[in-house]
Amino acid sequence: MHKNKVEYAVVCSTGKLRKNNEDNFYCAGHIRDHVASVADIAYSGKVDADANELFAVFDGMGGEACGEVASFVAAAESLAFTRAKDAYTEYLKPLAVQINKRICEQTEARSLVLMGTTAAMLQVCGDDIYILNSGDSRIYRLSGHKLEQLSMEHVAVSGSSKAITQFMGMPEGYEATPYAARGKFKRGDMYLLCSDGVTDMLDDDEICRIIDDRMDLDVLARALTDAALDRGGVDNITALLLRLTK
Asked: Which CATH superfamily is domain 5-245 in?
């Protein structure tokens, strides 16, 4: 009997205008561990669908070398947590609590007022999926030719500016309430986790046109990144794609 597999591919780019990369990710044991590097990073591969694996995108906030620290702490904590996870339970909520705690500890240790990161997280356990998000990094599902945003936006808009109302690293006295949901992973469905470096440059129709294809996921992840770069690449760009296969 052939087990279902989860194909994955991720591309993380600094973009055209930023001097540093505040994005990070967790992708089947891979993270961006060279925090000071501005080189593009890409991984792709397959894992068993019943391995209870985690996939996540983190977009750091705070500037002045704080954003990349917060997103790295989130990715590194995900790595440590998943190595010790119970293989049969949902773990996104306790992981989110742990990430928030670690970032707050680093904020205090660095004598900072605040630093944080968005989070778009997806756990695959057999044909079940669990999602959790905080901030404006998004999770999409492409089923057939329909693109659906599964994540919840935590953004307050005022004129041309926006403020993130939920993030990892919220200090004591503020209620951290990430959005969480669950669903079924069907063969052929594709999932996209991405930072706003993608969605600020490309609308949903453009994203759908790019990934509504049966090419290799690493090709599609690079195509999304290149399209965002062609539009200006004003922010860091991370695109992580998943697909269930035999």
From this structure: PPM-type phosphatase domain (3.60.40.10)
